[in-house]
Amino acid sequence: MRVFVTGGTGLIGSAVVAELLANGHTVLTLARSEASALAAEKAGAEVLRGSLGDLDTLRAGAAQADGVIHLAFGHDFSSAESVARSVAEESAALAALGDELVGTDRPFVTVSGTPWVPGRASTEADPVPTDGPVGGRGRAVTGVLELAARGVRSTAVRLPRTVHNEGKGGFAGLLTDIARRTGVSGYPGDGTQRWPAVHALDAAVLFRLALESAPAGSAWHAVADEGDAVRDIAAVIGRRLGLPVSAVPQETYGPLGVIFAADQPSSSTRTQEALGWKPVHPSLLEDLQNIQP
Q: 170 by DSSP, 3-state: which?
């Protein structure tokens, strides 16, 4: 299958591209910069130059492909306005990609986050939130899944709070970055809230399986660790960086503070049973041992 991938050179995207190529697919990946283009070509992918905001380029990429995997998203979390801009850009991109695929029965795999449900681990049957700081992403992904009624084999892979590799990535990576900057390995609240996690190489396998066989309108959970206590994550980061560990104000995390403070374990039981997906790579707490002091 010839697959058009957005975000194909990031931590998750590079793993997805490698997984696709290793399993007989060819890849056309969107590249905004020369450095990204060179990285994609080195990995063995073809390159389509452009950004997530170039809607005509996105349509052209989808038109050339047998399937689409969308992974790109702006990562400026410095303010509510910057997050809103990233959400709006992604929403327009998903609409453009979806319009190009209507009536083709081609697979369209997009990315989402695992939802949180008070008192229990969320499952694939739970809806994604459509309000809050990133509620617009939930609305856009819901629109993608509704394309199942219009001749698109659309599906969503829901990622947990941390997708990691070699100690980098996700919410845990943000905790590490903030710890380096502030001199304290912090956590919001009492730190008992739980975050789910998955290794990027395991997540990549699930994206491929969803592309190849997931039914239209379905959602899946790329969750290996159902939920690690945030203070345990902060403790490992503190040990690796030689920094004190303590609670810090929720405001430390800007517009994502309310999400950082939430208890949000998540299950992938149905995903593993239905798609035969089995995470095999190191857990988050194990992988954080790779953080360099």
A: helix
